[in-house]
Design goal:
alpha+beta; Beta-Lactamase; Heat Shock Protein 90; 12 strands; 26% strand; elongated; disordered N terminus
């Protein structure tokens, strides 16, 4: 076999791989790219060759300094579950490995990118749901231990108030009662909605329109509110008030994030789509409705991304951290889930709801 035949075999082998392979030079320009990488970048060979790699990604999506250090120090590195954000608005979670290559006395980097498959994502969602449920059970236990003594303290303060002869002292007993009521209300909010959903056939877009009208009515900040609805979505069997509350909590968070960041041209978008073969908490549904609320704010801080739906987790100075926790609980009442994708300049919360009718639910 000639060296040329061997080279062709290697090229054919690389192009048959599912792992995306990209070779860049010291200027981070693409020198070689296989078919899997072209598919990942959603571009053609002519458009990809001899272009800077960061032409395809949003700023800060790839740590360019780390690639430069890898070249200078002849070191390889890996990143697991790295989110790549493309300029066309896509985001992909990948495992990435970078290796130094020495070709024609010049240093190059071989970048291997493997998109994390859907099964791993489902596994992660299941694990996160289990962690959230464990956290909620812990809070329920703590709430029970707190509410019982609070009832005793409040009752004792009431009895003491009746025994006091000096009316001026009633101010202090009333203070105890008020603070006990405040703590009890906080505990009730931590527990989230505990009433059963009152389900009926309802129009999903009418629910979203009520939420949208609340955001539009906020004249303190000029936010452009956009709609992108799929009119083919049928009526769903759900509790409209619960869904409205869940979506309103998400939309208000987006509104507040845009205000706090003072975004120059703030946008909140409401989008609906139908998803086929959707897996929620390990159960596959043939059809699901997807409701996305998208904003162009600063994104969710990395420090709270993994615990975003836990009670009392917030990045706002005055926030209670209960809005998203309650929204997730309301989604749970409908066998649904809430996904989030966020990076600077883009945040998308998506509510997934199984499309069922009253007959199929009974």
């Amino acid at each position: 076999m000639s060296p040329q035949d061997n080279q062709i075999d290697i090229i054919d082998l690389n192009d048959s791989m599912k792992t995306a392979l990209i070779v860049v030079d010291a200027d981070m320009q693409v020198c070689y790219i296989n078919d899997a990488a072209l598919g990942l970048l959603e571009t053609g060979l002519t458009q990809a060759k001899e272009r800077p790699l960061d032409d395809f990604f949003l700023p800060n999506s790839l740590d360019k300094n780390r690639f430069i250090l890898a070249l200078e120090n002849a070191e390889e590195f890996s990143e697991s579950e790295l989110q790549l954000f493309f300029k066309d608005g896509r985001a992909v979670t990948v495992d990435l490995h970078v290796t130094l290559l020495d070709y024609e006395s010049r240093k190059h980097l071989l970048i291997e990118i493997l998109a994390i498959d859907k099964q791993r994502k489902i596994s992660q969602e299941t694990q996160q749901h289990a962690q959230q449920m464990a956290a909620k059970e812990l809070i329920r236990g703590l709430a029970h231990e707190i509410k019982n003594p609070l009832g005793g303290i409040r009752g004792a303060a009431q009895l003491l108030g009746k025994e006091l002869t000096d009316p001026a002292h009633n101010e202090f007993t009333q203070m105890i009662i008020d603070q006990a009521d405040r703590l009890r209300a906080l505990v009730d909010r931590l527990l989230g909605p505990n009433s059963l959903p009152q389900k009926r056939l309802c129009n999903l877009h009418q629910i979203i329109e009520k939420v949208r009208s609340v955001i539009v009515a906020d004249t303190t900040y000029n936010i452009d509110v956009e709609r992108d609805y799929d009119p083919s979505i049928p009526d769903i069997y759900a509790d409209p008030d619960m869904l409205q509350q869940a979506l309103l909590n998400i939309a208000r968070n987006a509104n507040q994030a845009l205000k706090n960041a003072k975004v120059a041209q703030p946008i909140i978008g409401f989008r609906t789509r139908v998803e086929r073969q959707c897996t929620i908490k390990g159960k596959r549904h043939n059809l699901c409705a997807m409701v996305s609320i998208i904003d162009n704010g600063p994104g969710i801080p990395d420090a709270i991304k993994d615990t975003l739906f836990y009670p009392m987790v917030t990045s706002k100075r005055t926030g209670s951290g209960l809005g998203l926790s309650i929204a997730q609980t309301l989604a749970d009442h409908h066998d649904g889930k809430i996904d989030v994708e966020s990076y600077p300049g883009y945040t998308e919360f998506t509510l997934h709801l199984p499309l069922i009718t009253k007959d199929s639910n009974t």
